[in-house]
Amino acid sequence: MVNQGCDLGLIGLGVMGRNFALNVADHGFSVAGYDLDADKTKKLGEEKSAGHDVRSSSNLKQFVGLLRSPRAVMLLVPAGDPVDSVIKELMPLLDKGDLIIDSGNSRFVDTDRRGKSLEEKGLLFVGMGMSGGESGARHGPSLMPGGPKDGYERVRSMLEAASAHVDGDPCVTHLGAGSAGHYVKMVHNGIEYGVMQLIAETYDLMKRSMGVRAEELHKIFDQWNKSELNGYLIEITAAIFAKQDEKTGKPLVEMILDQARQKGTGKWVSWDAMDLQVPTPTIDTAVMMRNLSDYKPEREKASKILRGSSNEFKGDKKQLIDQLKNSLYASMIITYAQGLALLGKASEVYQYGLNLEAVARIWRGGCIIRAALLEDIRSAYRNQGDLANLLLDSHFADEVMKRQDDLRNVVRSGVHCGLPVPALMASLAYFDAYRSARLPANLVQAQRDFFGSHTYERVDTDGVFHTQWDES
Q: Which of 170, 188, 201, 365 is most buried by its number of CB atoms within 10 A?
């Protein structure tokens, strides 16, 4: 007897879950949905009359019964305890060989824990990052699955059909073992943090030091999006500056409180980068600036007490705008370099087996950090699979070096105007430190040995040494 059950079960019918369910159904696969919210469950079930092969149930046991065996169940619920809670409820209803896919923003260590526990019970567990927001979920996201390869293969055709496509390539691939998928998504979000902060600092210099109005900012970013800066974040930034507030008639961006929220993925990148001793200063700075933005009452108080330089830029404004464009592009390259270097080290330490060319390929479409430069990043890793850092690729080295003077001038302008440009500064500092054959860490080692007898190494002979620095 042919099993007539659904190809995929989806738990969590919020904005992302509902849209992804309809996306999968659009491509000829049958989907069953479940949510604790009966209204959301009912709403999805009504899509069957609109021509989609979707079913739904507000009863978890009945929902599982709608699926063909071996079952594939995708979770799109908030990260953390809700994921564990859903898995616990599902366990008695599933059979050995069934597959659970967690597509939320789960922390990679939780994914490893869940995968090990479920494997012991005979179940397959895939941790899969999904990027693209509401529109991506509906029309084609970037999907980043990791875990058992046979689990991915079971749903491969479905995921390839539902993902974004660039030049005919689906923006999904099996990334590696264990928590590889969620780790790659975490780093994706870290790069996203960094690029967003760089764009914000670029905007701030134009707005506060030169008085560039929203209408002109829209035109500038729209033009930039037609250049090497082409990418989703530049595109939406241009659109944001064109949006008027219906209540006041002012540009809507000017009516938004300057306190940026976060859900933790950027912080997780900084944590693990520090554990792995991989420098990611642009990403770290972006996390820090979101934290600092949340000190709004303190900042308002400080603004009345602490005085700095005049914010006014008195030089050639057109020249500074051109320099900002080049500085932003150079700093974006440096931010991607930091994130990809972290992925390389994590792959080695956690034994993911990542292919960074494949990572760049699936980031080209659907996801938030999609940008034209990812095609060149893909080429760099295709030509040199063991590339330690993107800045060692001749193309990207040239792209940054020919823009470094503009980046230095922009940082200088920010300092002179008393405006914070910490992510641009961090990007420049990373570039200068990475290209330095010698750093002042010798003095740090001497200090550590002086106060803590931590020892040091010498430049002229092998071995470990300690000096009695204070002879008194």
A: 201
Tell me whether residue 296 is in a domain.
Answer: yes
Active site residue 47: no
Q: What is the pLDDT of residues 216-233, one digit of tens each?
A: 999 999 999 999 999 999
Phi, psi dihedrals of residue 18, rounded to the nearest 5°: -60, -45
- Is residue 14, in this structure, part of any structural domain at all? yes
Assess whether 107 and 241 both reside in one domain.
Answer: no
pTM of model > 0.85: yes
Residue 99 lies in a domain: yes
Omega prior to 82 cis, within 30 of 0: no
The answer to whether residues 403 and 452 belong to one domain is no
pLDDT at 39 over 90: no
| Alpha carbon distance 301, 304 (integer Å) | 6
Residue 261 in this model has a pLDDT that exceeds 90: no
Task: State the pLDDT at residue 51.
Answer: 67
Catalytic pick among 40, 185, 207, 325: 185
Tokens 């149930």 correspond to what residue? 57
Cα(461)–Cα(219) distance, rounded to whole angstroms?
60
Spatial distance between the Cα atoms of 454 and 446, rounded to a whole number of angstroms: 9
pLDDT of residue 2: 39
Examine the domain organization and report whether 335 and 293 are in the same domain: yes
The CATH number given to whatever domain includes residue 402 is: 1.10.1040.10
Other CB atoms closer than 10 Å to residue 239's CB: what's the count? 13
Residue 101, SS3 per DSSP: strand
Known active-site residue 192? yes
Range of the domain at 169: 8-178
Q: How many domains does the structure of the chain reveal?
A: 3
Q: Cα separation of 101 and 124, whole Å?
A: 8
Contact by Cβ (8 Å): 22, 138: yes
Tens-digit pLDDT profile for residues 167-192: 999 999 999 999 999 999 999 999 99
Q: Do 378 and 396 belong together in one domain?
A: yes
Of the residues 144, 160, 178, which one is the last residue of a structural domain?
Answer: 178
Q: What is the pLDDT of residues 52-104, one digit of tens each?
A: 788 988 899 999 999 999 999 999 999 999 999 999 999 999 999 999 999 99
